[in-house]
Amino acid sequence: MNIPKTLKIFNKKGSILTFNSYGASLKSWNFELKDKNRVDIVLGYGDEINYESNPLYLGCIAGRYANRIANGQFLLNGKLVKLTQNDNGNHLHGGQKGFSSKLWDVVEHKTNTLILSLESRDQDENYPGTLKTTVSYTINDLNELKVAFYAFSDMDTIINLTQHSYFNLNGNTGEDILNHKIKINSNQITEIDHQLIPTGKFLDVKGTPLDLRKFTRIGKMINQNFQQMNFAKGYDHNFVLNNNKANNIKKVAELIGDKTKIKMCVKTDLPGLQFYSGNFLDGSYEGKNGFKLIRNSGLCLEPQYFPDSPNNSHFPSTILKKGDVYAHNIIYGLSN
Ligand code: BGC
Fold first, then answer.
1. What CATH number did the domain enclosing 105 receive?
2. Which residues line ligand 1 (CB under 6 A)?
3. pLDDT at 244
4. Domain range spanning residue 98?
5. Which segments within 59-197 are labelled E, that is strand?
6. How many domains does the chain have?
7. Is the pLDDT of residue 242 over 90?
8. What's phi and psi for 17, nearest 5 deg?
9. pLDDT tens, 188-203?
10. Does 1 fall in a domain?
11. Which atom of ligand 1 is nearest to the CA of 164?
12. Which of 93, 277, 305 to mutate to test the pocket of ligand 1 (most atoms within 8 A of CB)?
């Protein structure tokens, strides 16, 4: 098979997006400002080869289960499933070789649409069932990137897919995102322990650094001495969206780049939003324009199901029954 290295889509409003088939990863989103200057608002590797393993999960589709599962274990239909443990004894983003580093097939490639698919065989990373997943990326003329997920399995299994782009709305200039302003429409997070595993409790954001219900400068409270922030070394929390009806797509978050004034609006029909402020980027990889990817170089806004749902029966269920269809949407919209 001829593997296209860079896949490009664009719209009539000056947005040009490129992808890599490894991880179905978004590599760049070139956005045209009012004054016709261009800004690439996502982080990426300086060296393309890194998309094959994608250790930082830059721009990828994370799965089968995005985020963490405690001890990599859970019960499904009364049977213990033991997944690979790739994060301090826990399971993160689908294991050693999750969807982020698998080579996806290109199903359709048009001017403004790219559709990729992946077949993950039964027992891949020890997950039950052969799962067929499709992700469709469409950029419309409102500068909205729609990410649509479909999946089905030949056995009961679990699933949680997300888009894992790191955004910096000021571009790839080596500066951090601490002066970006963020707003998240959520009253609660799922509380985490020191390993970032949910305790099972919900925590009201009111009066804490996690209260982002009004536009807030990210750097304002990121270093506040608050246990939930200390555990994650910044923001790395699942915000409860009270939303899990497919096709009930709601606005859940907004982000503004202080230099470019680019505004991003995030919409989804998923029940949670992981806001990760890039706390574990440590300069080991080079990004674009020769800048090292350091702490807070970019941030992720990942609509998804809650972490460790298979071990928390009071969380929205991530079980995908044999023959059922998993269908969810994420929209990232840009304006200036
Ligand atoms: C998680 C972080 C993790 C990162 C890895 C994020 O989705 O919330 O805890 O370190 O992915 O890139």
1. 2.70.98.10
2. 56-57, 196, 236, 274, 276, 280, 300, 302
3. 59
4. 6-335
5. 60-62, 68-69, 73-76, 79-82, 91-92, 105-109, 113-120, 131-139, 144-153, 157-158, 162-164, 166-167, 181-184, 188-192
6. 1
7. no
8. -120, 140
9. 999 999 999 999 999 9
10. no
11. 7
12. 93
